[in-house]
Amino acid sequence: MSSTLDAPLGARTPDPASGATFAAGERVPTRRRYLMCEPRFFTVEYVINPWMRPDQPVSTERAVEQWEQLRRTYERLGHTVETIEPQPGLPDMVFAANSGTVIDGRVLGSRFRAEQRAAEAEHFRRWFLEHGYRSVVMPEKINEAEGDFAWTGSLLLAGTGFRTDPGAHAEAQEVLGMPVVSLQLVDPRYYHLDVALFVLDDQSEHPLVAYYPDAFSPGSQQVLRRLFPDAVIANAEDAECLGLNGVSDGRNVVLPMEATHLAEKVAERGFEPVLVDVSELRKSGGGPKCCTMELRD
């Protein structure tokens, strides 16, 4: 397991449980393009999820440092990072994943449930239009974008229960032209799909995900078992540090630094964990994925 970006690509990583080794190089990364927003105005001044505590101190400077580390991590891994200008009065705009879903160059924007974040959607809509996207649709239903949508390479997993309306799933299928599978979230701590599940491999014939079963209803757990019988199963510790708010390029898996157990589990499957400090951003309920919208052009 690596917490830096300097580990050799062909390095073999030990399995702490068995002492066995595996070749991380067997997994092949694909170059990605991401959209991010600097947390220049980051603070916690309201409560819209169980992680937010306005009575606790927050360092905007530290949040910016952690965001910069995350951005540099992506760039060192060979990915392209685009940025959108942050806006005063929108402290959660750093969580770019909530403002758009892009597949094959088609964009489905967002419509936030919390009024405190509603204005973010228009800034992202303008960014898409200014950067050459022509198929940009703003949703009629409450839709918090990649917060509740996860693309597996063949279908779109769609969460509901706390933020995104169930009707937004049908809207996404119509706009994006991709099959959608609805999943019911039941634990308010894991209010978005992207803090309960993430996609490790979206390039192979059989996509691979990691998820925390207890975040989902019994029926949705059955659906996930059927779709992903080989999934990486996270435990409560993984979920509680927002470890499932990860980002994978098919080989390198960017995770919060506290997610050591989950890092070991994905390493056992031949992935290379890259641990980053997002502790300040987590005070608003976010992690690597929340800060990262993937531009699938």
Automatic annotation (TrEMBL):
Kindly give the SUPFAM superfamilies that the UniProt entry links to this protein. Pentein
Could you state a single Gene Ontology molecular function term?
A: arginine deiminase activity
From the UniProt entry, list the residue stretches annotated as the region Disordered. Answer: 1-22
In the record, biological process GO terms are: L-arginine deiminase pathway
- Gene3D superfamilies per record: L-arginine/glycine Amidinotransferase, Chain A
Question: Could you identify this protein by its name?
Answer: Amidinotransferase
